[in-house]
């Protein structure tokens, strides 16, 4: 019997859904039957993804800076409660090619990384989880990084933010589980998207060099985690919670 990923009748919100991994997660959720709010700080990107997925009622854009609690509240007023929340928005502290050793950073670098990679997860989840608990059904998935599972040079702050997000989701799972709400993480390694994709396009040898770190001998593609996220958000994921699932080509083994 074929496995059916069924999110029919559910409403989802994907933060950072305007490109890359977030856009592919939106696509997978729509394919599974969900109606998706595509969040992005760029209205143009969110609109483009929503239109590519068929527009209303399948996908609708919602612009918001998820580092701002006030703008999150406005987004919550616009979307109303959702059944599925995917905390996807996040970037390394200073971007690929400008990563710094911890001793070379300044506090402003830490604050930026923490606001987006941890603070946004807390604020967005706080805005939406309560209604899930009240309705006794919900799925929360946070996209994290192997930088939070394994120590990495140039990633001290980013890794600590992602590790914090994992700890938060584990504790949240214990709190909301009795109400039928699950909370999980999907941990990624180097993904061929955004600035990294541009760099590899300019210098293919860079991609080959980076890929040697992975048993699968390639970088991740934005499509790689999308089906797993949809599965965790579906009816089939009802007894899976408090976990961190790596989608990383075997970079860091999970126990």
Strand content: 15-25%
Please count the beta strands (DSSP E, at least 2 residues each): 7
Major pleated sheet: 7 strands, parallel
Class computed from helices, strands and strand pairing: alpha/beta
Q: Measured on Cα atoms, how large is the radius of gyration?
A: 17 Å
Mean pLDDT across every amino acid position: 93
Count, helices: 8
Helix fraction? 40-55%
Order of helices and strands: EHEHEHEHEHEHHHE
Span between N and C termini? 29 Å
- Low-pLDDT parts are none
Q: Please give the order of strands in the largest beta sheet.
A: 3-2-1-4-5-6-7
Using the alpha-carbon principal axes, give the shape.
Answer: globular
Could you characterize the architecture of this molecule?
The protein is 42% helix and 15% strand. The chain is built from eight helices and seven strands, in the order βαβαβαβαβαβαααβ. The protein has a seven-stranded parallel beta sheet with strand order 3-2-1-4-5-6-7, sandwiched between helices. Helix 1 (20-31) links the parallel strand 1 (11-14) and strand 2 (35-40). It is globular, with a radius of gyration of 17 Å. The chain starts with 10 loop residues before the first strand and ends in an 8-residue tail after the last strand.
Please write out the topology.
Blueprint: E1 11-14, H1 20-31, E2 35-40, H2 43-52, E3 59-63, H3 69-79, E4 84-87, H4 107-135, E5 138-145, H5 156-176, E6 181-188, H6 194-202, H7 204-211, H8 226-233, E7 244-247
Parallel strand pairs: 1-2, 1-4, 2-3, 4-5, 5-6, 6-7
Helix pairs in contact: 1-8, 3-4, 4-5, 6-7
């Amino acid at each position: 019997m074929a496995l059916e990923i069924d999110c029919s009748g559910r409403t989802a919100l994907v933060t950072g859904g305007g490109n890359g991994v977030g856009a592919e997660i939106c696509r997978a959720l729509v394919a599974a039957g969900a109606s998706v709010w595509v969040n992005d700080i760029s209205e143009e990107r969110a609109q483009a993804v929503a239109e590519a997925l068929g527009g209303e009622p399948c996908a609708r854009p919602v612009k918001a800076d998820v580092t701002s609690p006030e703008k999150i509240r406005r987004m919550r007023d616009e979307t109303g409660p959702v059944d599925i929340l995917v905390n996807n928005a996040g970037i390394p502290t200073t971007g690929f090619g400008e990563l710094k050793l911890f001793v070379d950073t300044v506090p402003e670098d830490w604050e930026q990384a923490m606001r987006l990679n941890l603070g946004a997860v807390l604020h967005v989840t706080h805005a939406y989880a309560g209604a899930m608990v009240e309705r006794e059904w919900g799925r929360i998935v946070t996209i994290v990084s192997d930088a939070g599972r394994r120590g990495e040079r140039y990633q001290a702050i980013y890794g600590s933010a992602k590790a914090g997000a994992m700890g938060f989701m584990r504790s949240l799972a214990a709190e909301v589980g009795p109400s039928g709400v699950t909370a999980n993480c999907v941990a990624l390694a180097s993904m061929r998207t955004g600035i990294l994709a541009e760099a590899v396009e300019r210098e293919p040898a860079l991609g080959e060099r980076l890929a040697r770190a992975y048993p699968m001998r390639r970088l991740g593609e934005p499509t790689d985690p999308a089906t797993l996220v949809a599965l965790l958000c579906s009816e089939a994921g009802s007894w899976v919670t408090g976990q961190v699932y790596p989608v990383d080509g075997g970079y860091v083994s999970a126990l």
